[in-house]
Amino acid sequence: MTVPLELPKAIDLSHHLNSIARNRYASPLKDILNYMAQPGMISLAGGLPHPSLFPFAGASVSVYTPDTDLKHGVVPPASEQMTLAIPKTAPSKGALSLDATMQYANSMGLPELREWLHAFTRDVLSPAYANFEILLHEGNTAAWAKVCRLLLDRGDYVLLEEFSFPSAMGPWVPEGCKGVPVKMDGQGLRADDLERVLTEWETAHPGERRPRVLYTVPQGANPTGTTMSPERMRDVYDVCRRFDVIVCEDAPYHALSFRPFQITPEPVDPVGVSGEEFRRTLPPSFLKYDTEGRVIRLETFSKTLAPGSRLGYFVANPLFTERLLRATEVESQTPSGWSMAIVSQLLHTWGQAGYLQWLSNLRDSYELRRNIMCAALAKQFVALPAEQYASQVPGCEGVALYPRGTDPATIKPDQVPVASFVAPAGGMFLWIRFYLTGAPRFRELQASGHEDPEKAFMDDMWKALADNLVLLTPGSYYVPVTTTFDAATSKLPTTSERGGEPNVGFFRFAFSYGDRAEMEEGIHRVEQVVSKLWGY
């Protein structure tokens, strides 16, 4: 493919702005801050507290070096740490100071940090249009809510994965918007089903406006752990371009993209690589294929540094960042000065190469955790390749789990396992599908005519797991809201009413927090409950 000498600029997408976004105007108070920066200016205008009255004389933070081995949870000794110091007043022009970072500031965010992130985005993600911009925000949950207020009108439809993060629905459900689930497979959201939904829209929803926004987590999706291949991502983007859909790419797990998994009796310890090798093997962002500026990427430091920082950034075209800026000026004003100062100092100290090395080591740590949990499942169940042993079981992909003691030689291709999972290609979660027809209690619920036997059984199973002192997240939490919802009167649709798959249920297993002993014991407790409920 021939690479153009100059990248194109974003096209005009102003028709996507909702009435609120179109009518926002610049805060006049923020203009004053811009004039105050002029040399020799005496300001008697802004109501800014005098920095001499801030009680902070300086700040220092001890941090890891970027090449710290993170896989085994050992805090490096003080002699192997670095100290970041932020003085009260800047020692030189352009240096960080608490006087500046603790003050009211431009709502775009700390300029030094935005410049660093712009260069990082350019060098690592390679956007396919020239004039992308960076706008800091307070984390992806708040950022997505701002995008909803930018693009969605009351009663609109939102395209999203058939299993999606519950908090992603929170901003638009109260506005009377409805989700449109798009089917998934082992590579995440399916481009062919997205095209089907959009092509058939007028027939299926006569008189209703076609969805104009896709919300997706393309790497290490929550809850499924799937990651789009480059080919899949190009296909999804092409569908969105043809149907004029804005892509909101939520990317908290992009750096936590793992290498392929194989079933092993003991967890494989990932081999570390350089930051540059890590960069070369990162999966692409939608930005790489976006020549029009129709992708809004949500980046966050919650998974790469710490969630308490409440700091992240938009990557978007100038029209969208300007409208988001107008909202930020009157809603949140700016992210925390502490967070911006510390993160900016950290990234400038580490440098781009250092940050990439940190991300590489961080990826190794979570990949090892994934391997530990998958190996624990292989110990407690008979774990076999689904393609080889369960090829005739609908929906069974990746690894099939059979009761302990099952002889693989006796398994027939249509023999239904207890459960199955696709080893996560990134993120923090394992999404396990349970086949309920093997459980006597589920068959009783079906025979009794229960209106939702799948949910009833999975609720009972969750309680049994909690009684056995192991907590999982019910899969029902991740089902999109597809109808107008009134919290006071609405009843959630049953599995059959929402078109859910019959005779199966899901749990999300998190491998992000527990140590090896806790994960192995937790999976043992899960197997104890499963063996009782399935009666083997």
TrEMBL record:
SUPFAM superfamilies: PLP-dependent transferases. Signal peptide: none annotated. The keyword Transferase applies. Keywords: Aminotransferase, Pyridoxal phosphate, Transferase. One of its GO terms (molecular function) is transaminase activity. GO terms for biological process: alpha-amino acid metabolic process. It comes from the Eukaryota. InterPro entries: Aminotransferase_I/II_large, Class-I_PLP-dep_aminotransf, PyrdxlP-dep_Trfase, PyrdxlP-dep_Trfase_major. Residues 90-382 form the Aminotransferase class I/classII large domain. The keyword Ligase does not apply. Its cofactor is pyridoxal 5'-phosphate. PANTHER family: AMINOTRANSFERASE, AROMATIC AMINO ACID AMINOTRANSFERASE, HYPOTHETICAL (EUROFUNG). Belongs to the class-I pyridoxal-phosphate-dependent aminotransferase family. This is Pyridoxal phosphate-dependent transferase. It comes from Rhodotorula diobovata.
